[in-house]
Here is the input.
Amino acid sequence: MDIPSKYDSQKAENHWYDYWMENNYFSSLPDEREPYTIVIPPPNVTGVLHMGHMLNNTIQDVLTRRARLMGKNACWVPGMDHASIATEAKVVAKLKSEGIEKTDLSRDEFLKHAWDWTNEYGGVILEQLKKLGCSCDWNRTKFTMDDDMYQSVIKVFVDLFNKGLIYRGHRMVNWDPEALTTLSDEEVIYEEKQGLLYYLSYAIEGSDEKVTIATTRPETILGDTAICINPNDDRYKHLKGKNAIVPICNRVIPIIEDEYVDIEFGTGCLKITPAHDINDKALGEKHKLETIDIFNANATLNSFGLHYEGKDRFVVRKEISKELEENGFLIKKENYVNKVGTSERTKAVIEPRLSDQWFLKMEDLVKPALKAVLETEEVRFFPKKFENTYRHWMENIRDWNISRQLWWGQQIPAYYFGDGQNDFVVAETIESALKLAQEKSGNTGLSKEDLRQDEDALDTWFSSWLWPISVFNGILEPDNKEVNYYYPTSDLVTGPDIIFFWVARMIISGYEYRDERPFKNVYFTGLVRDKQRRKMSKSLGNSPDALNLIETYGADGVRVGLLLSSAAGNDLMFDEDLCQQGKNFANKIWNGFRLLKGWEVKEQAQPEASKLGIEWYTAKFNQVLEEIEDHFSKYRISDALMAIYKLVWDDYSSWLLEIIKPEYQKPIDKTTYDAVIHLFEQNLKLLHPFMPFLTEEVWQHITERSAEDALVVSEWPKVQKTDQSLINNFDFASEVVSGVRNIRKEKNIPMKEALQLSVLNEGGVSNSWDEVIKKLTNVSEISYVEASVDGALSFRVKSNEYFVPMNGAIDIEAEIKKIQEELKYTKGFLNSVEKKLANERFVNNAPEQVIVNERKKQSDAISKIETLEKSLASLK
Here is the structure.
């Protein structure tokens, strides 16, 4: 089989992915094997591949491919999330560009446009994941708006409602005035922003007295319905029972007392706007205050805004502060840093808003999920530090606002049949709803036309919290073969930023609907940042195009580049040089393979050096394999890759291939060749999860293979007993090789010029390794001597001293001077170390490890001085 001179990543990637798909290697059906199940964190249907996706899905693919090699029935379920807010926003924008307003359409008309958009633009990211090499079972691709997924969500809503866990309430919620929907607490990001504190003067009714109120939002004075003072504040006790007059709108409002008011903050007087602040709402209910909402849904002012009606809240803030100042109501302004809530999706500043919404009671639901992570460890987090984040949120959980004022999503299955507060029923179908409505109302004459379904859709996370169950149809058919086989899943790979949105809620639903965990292990990746530690984003323009990276460096190069610096839970400082390093690694493997295949193979005696080299590398491979298994067990994926990287780059390429390489234009013996090919194949198996395309390409070039023998479905190596003595002896021999090579480098002695080597005080390594040393250093003879060799350069390896006779090739005087300078420096260094160790205060107070390090420095320096003095004596 012809082997191209260069590895063509694009050609290999297209060819082998098609080959894997044609042979259904990624497909999974229940059988007698142990299942390995992983469900993809479903990307938004609107999404395209970015660096976060690249990292997350590379790790999932590594775990999946390794499980497949280990003989498990690997099932990686792909899919997409309908992303209510993001998708609806894109569809609304598209319609607007065509001159169509959402309000001009019926729900069904709008949903047709949404489905058209989804069918045209959705799913791009899944095709892009194939370019990365993701070995998902594409036959199982799910979408949260698929019929069965939709019905699963509706069934769960009805079930939770019937259990008394879902309720409808008029409460203050987080309102996104851009998306025109409510958000859950977890979808609000609080950011510190520089603002102003406005000090406003309110007149006291029937007197010339005034009080000063401090506020960050002067526009909301138009919704004020009281002023509150602390009953213990002597400054304002005389105002109890009086009224104040709100500037501009001249509304008369009562002055009330409540200990909630902080005497120290601002002026000690608080304006109360029950419609626009959650704490004010509580005070309003307590003191039976009027509630005045001054905002429209899009955060423009309504008729209560007087002459500001129709203007945006931030425009009004500037204009009303100017009007207040011109009319003498604005006393002063101060700079003020305030925490402002913004929408996680649209980045709009959130408005607190009173609204009728649907809520899920969380207090009891969280208990099994808390226990599973923090007590029984049925679910394990990697890294463990995220357990504290999880605990804090779960122990302080609030009821989940699950309704959204959107049309794209699962429509809430509540049906209204009257105008009363409780004139509604909840059911999976309109037929069931009609029956319930007739029973509840006592009106058997009600028809379907008399029912009106709730307009709102459910929070997107209310579908994705069921993901590990619903992808196997475990909600609609709780005892089906697939869910019983694949659930609970094995691993979840995700970002810590959705630990509340998704991870915690999946654990909650797992115990509620399957009475068991949804997954065993959660691996939290870090965020991908640039070299300046900034989070990568389109707005900053610091995020490289993922597909361009793959085109430039190859998918394997990008995968290696990402993983080499992505320890679990720690942010990744992305640098394109890492992808170049990955590409270089691929080329190193390819060129090493071409070297192997370029040798002529003959039946002949195996050289002793080759025999030793094979035995050593076999032992080294087993040692590293054991290390790799340990890394995988602790989800140290980048450490596992680094161990393989060093094994292949250093031990295999730099040492083994050099040891077994035949002389120029001479054949290699078949025994050695076959053994090296076997070890190379073992390397490819370890590398395959990380570099699937390159390894399959090389694997298929080694020999003709059937479909059953493809690397993707081969067998992961098993850990064998490691012969540590072989490794120790090689380490010793490699130091000798390095010593000789250093002398060649220092003295400019070419490799083709044979040297002699003498050894004094033999010990530490068997002389059987002499053949390896001779081959790697071009030493013609190694002799064992009982005294120093005059006129030779020397170096020490443990208890042995090695001499390389120069036969007059060195300047004796210059060499003596060099050794004397090094001797002087080393003695000075030893003196400083011994002074430290003679200092009782230092020895008594320094950490034990520091003392150990200093004693090692002392020992090494003494040994070096002894060697230098011997070398000096031999030259005189």
User: Anything to note?
Assistant: The radius of gyration is 37 Å. The mean pLDDT is 91. The CA atoms of residues 374 and 513 lie 20 Å apart.
